[in-house]
Amino acid sequence: MPLRRAVAELPESVNELCLVRFGLLAHRLSGVPVVRRYARAVEDAAAKATGLFHSERLSFGWKHIGFLQYWSSFDALNTWSHAAPHSDWWRAALDRMRTKGDIGVYHEAYVVPRSGVESIYLDCDGIGLARFGTLAEPIGTRTTARDRLGRRTV
Predict the structure, then answer these.
(1) Which residues lie below 8 Å from residue 148, measured CB to CB, with a gap of 6+?
(2) Which of 127, 108, 129 is nearest to 17 (CA)?
(3) pLDDT tens digits, residue range 66-82?
(4) Using an 8 Å Cβ cutoff, are 104 and 25 in contact?
């Protein structure tokens, strides 16, 4: 069976990509249902978010649920995060952390210029940048990560 290979490139209209990694941790058993409820709410809201290309849920065991999101820009993420439902969740989570201390929340954001994004997918369909980017064959200047990033030295 031949190996399916592809690289995914950002849509032409995108000059930067804002990657967000965030998660919810249950510090005690009482926090587990709260973490799961928030995770479901994130998935529901992600389907309606403007500027969000793709959201992937990641599990790190029974008490840690994370997400990796691909936003069209930092401005799109920032606009969404300061409006409901996100702003409501944030206030509720902060209140829960202060009063019960049974959950924790984190996020990391990375703004990457178009020239700093590269990918390859070998027998992997429908994940990451391949969900919304333009797919191409990894040939010529798309063969290696160094070439895809334009870092080939003579």
Answers:
(1) 7, 118, 119, 120, 141, 142
(2) 129
(3) 999 999 999 999 999 99
(4) yes
